[in-house]
Amino acid sequence: MRNKLNPGQDFEPVNPLKPYLGYHLRRISAASMASLSFSLSELGIRPSEATVVLFVEAAPGVRQSLIGKYLGIRRANMAPLIAGLESKGLCRKKALDGRSSGIQLTPSGIRCAEIIKQKIQENEQRSFGQLSAKEYKVLLKLVSSINLDMISL
Q1: For a disulfide at 57, which of 94, 109, 113, 121, Cβ 3.0-4.6 Å?
Q2: Could you tell me which residues are beta bridge partners of residue 10?
């Protein structure tokens, strides 16, 4: 590559961030999430909505505060997120007791959850298909073991 400051000198650019795992994880995450967002746009939903749908599928009747806690979604963002899923006909609130309600999927939400899982699998293949099954499992285990509470502000 030609050096623009000194045209007669060739140089090889150096990425000063190359030795940092966080840098690589951020780039991988950004690329994978962009791909997933594009794929989910066919359903008219965003990745954050898709994760909530899958969480509710796994725990029907769950309180929205618990969803937010486990998925790292701020309380102020949960109400509009659930309202949006309700307006799309994917979930509904069901009274649990006098003060709280749980979230459950509608039949459309259940069908949507199946499509979401398929799209996520396809995205995992696009994003990580060059890894062997063993490498994928090892990487998943390693990154899953990082305690995010230790690095949150």
Answers
A1: 113
A2: 2
Tokens of 93: 């609130």
How does residue 105 score in pLDDT terms, banded at 50, 70 and 90? very high
In a domain, 152, yes or no: no
Query: What are the residues whose beta carbons fall under 8 Å from the beta carbon of 113, sequence distance 6 or more?
Result: 53, 54, 57, 105
Q: Is residue 117 part of a domain?
A: yes
Domain containing residue 57? 21-125
* E strand segments, the chain: 62-63, 91-95, 101-105
Query: What's the pTM value of the predicted model, to 2 decimals?
Result: 0.84
Strand partners, 104: 92
CB count within 10 Å of CB 127 equals 16
Pairwise CA distance, residues 43 & 11, whole Å: 47
